[in-house]
Specification:
Helix content: 40-55%
Number of domains: 2
Largest sheet: 7 strands, mixed
Number of strands: 13
CATH architecture of the largest domain: 3-Layer(aba) Sandwich
Oligomer: single chain
CATH class of the largest domain: Alpha Beta
Strand order of the largest sheet: 2-8-7-6-5-3-4
InterPro entries: ArAA_b-elim_lyase/Thr_aldolase, PyrdxlP-dep_Trfase, PyrdxlP-dep_Trfase_major, PyrdxlP-dep_Trfase_small
CATH topology of the largest domain: Aspartate Aminotransferase, domain 2
Order of helices and strands: HEHHEHEHHEHEHEHHEEHHHEEHEEEH
Structural class: alpha/beta
Number of helices: 15
Family: Belongs to the threonine aldolase family.
Organism: Actinoplanes utahensis
Radius of gyration: 21 Å
Strand content: 5-15%
Cofactor: pyridoxal 5'-phosphate
Shape: globular
CATH superfamily of the largest domain: Type I PLP-dependent aspartate aminotransferase-like (Major domain)
GO molecular function, one term: L-allo-threonine aldolase activity
Length: 364
């Protein structure tokens, strides 16, 4: 996306009175104002840790039920350290990864380029691996990675029974289990278990603060005290021990206060929105019903045409439908990821149908 188009999209969303997918973008001044309401800013910041960073690490470890948690500036860095830890502790420089997983799709294969590790395909199916697939890997791996949910397969989750089985299969072959839990916060309704119970299945977990919680940036790698002791020097070596991270830490703490309690509500309403979108002529929704508050939507138009129509409707009607359209593998269709958050809670099925009709009419 060009800078001009990105700016137009941000302005269109910001000016809209109603937003179906996503949240209203905030300016830097608004983000700073959020920090003022999140904490007492007269306290001391962090200095290579401590202060709000330590408070965030302790709070997340408590939420997840782990012995410790370590703040990283990015999830990419946190996941590299998780895989290095597994390789160093087991002596096996290979990890079982999904080809649609974050490490393969969005981290430029950092685990291989920077740490010399090998990725072994856990499954080629558009879902997380099964216990049988892990048992049949055919070569040893130090870590089995499970992404909850698997974003690039459509934000899909296994059942609780399937997740328990795959974790058991990983341990049966002598491997650790690492959850790529960037969006694990909103996975608990589908799994039917509390967050701590889900996390207890894994040896380590990475969580994000900006994907669902509305934070500025940052991630945590959580697990045992031994993992934390290993992670801190490796975070430094990778350049992630930053002098001060209090803006990211404070916004993450605010997200835990404001957004985390509402995610279950978003997941529930996503099913209403998905049903309404599935009724739009020519539309396809997956998964249906959604496993989290995010899912995929296909419409039978080129991506560029849909993107322009959505922008024009937003600029004229002040109603934001959904952006980020890409031409799909399905001939004649474009796809987007729908995120049901606070702005969408006021939308009824009739509202969704009306907004879709505006976009279709704009296309002509």
């Amino acid at each position: 996306m060009s800078d001009d188009l990105k700016l137009r999209r941000l302005n269109a969303m910001r000016s809209s009175d109603r937003i179906l997918s996503g949240v209203r973008p905030k300016t830097m001044r608004e983000r700073l104002a959020d920090l003022e309401t999140a904490a007492d800013l007269d306290g001391w910041p962090d200095f290579y840790g401590g202060g709000p960073v330590e408070a965030l690490e302790e709070r997340v470890a408590g939420l997840l039920g782990t012995e410790a948690a370590v703040l990283f500036p990015t999830g990419t860095m946190a996941q590299q350290v998780a895989l290095r830890y597994g390789a160093d502790r087991t002596g096996i420089p290979a990890a079982a990864l999904h080809p649609l997983g974050h490490q393969e799709m969005h981290e430029r294969h950092a685990y291989a380029e920077l740490s010399g590790l090998r990725g072994i395909t856990s499954t080629d199916r558009p879902r997380n691996p099964t216990a049988a697939e892990i048992a049949a890997l055919g070569e040893p791996v130090s870590t089995v990675v499970v992404e909850l949910p698997l974003r690039d397969a459509g934000f899909v989750l296994p059942s609780w029974e399937e997740l328990v089985a795959v974790c058991g299969a990983a341990r049966a072959i002598g491997a650790r289990v690492h959850f790529d839990g960037a969006r694990i916060w909103e996975s608990t309704p589908h799994l039917g278990r509390a967050l701590r119970e889900v996390v207890a299945l894994a040896d380590s977990v990475y969580v994000s603060f900006y994907k669902s919680l509305g934070g500025i940036s940052g991630a945590v790698l959580a697990g045992t005290a031994d993992l934390a002791n290993y992670a801190r020097p490796w975070r430094h070596r990778f350049g992630g021990t930053i002098y001060q991270q209090f803006p990211a830490a404070l916004s993450a703490l605010a997200g835990l206060d404001r957004e985390l309690p509402r995610l279950r509500e978003y997941v529930g309403h996503a099913r209403t929105i998905a049903d309404a979108l599935a009724s739009v002529p020519g539309a396809r929704v997956f998964p249906h019903p959604p496993h989290t508050h995010q899912f995929r939507l296909w419409l039978p138009y080129p991506a560029a045409v849909l993107g322009e129509a959505v922008l024009r409707v937003a600029e004229r009607e002040r109603v934001w439908f959904a952006g980020g359209w890409v031409d799909a593998d399905v001939p004649g269709y474009a796809m987007t990821e729908v995120t049901v958050a606070e702005p969408a809670l006021e939308w009824t099925a009739a509202d969704v149908a009306a907004a879709a009709a505006l976009v279709r009419k704009e296309i002509g």
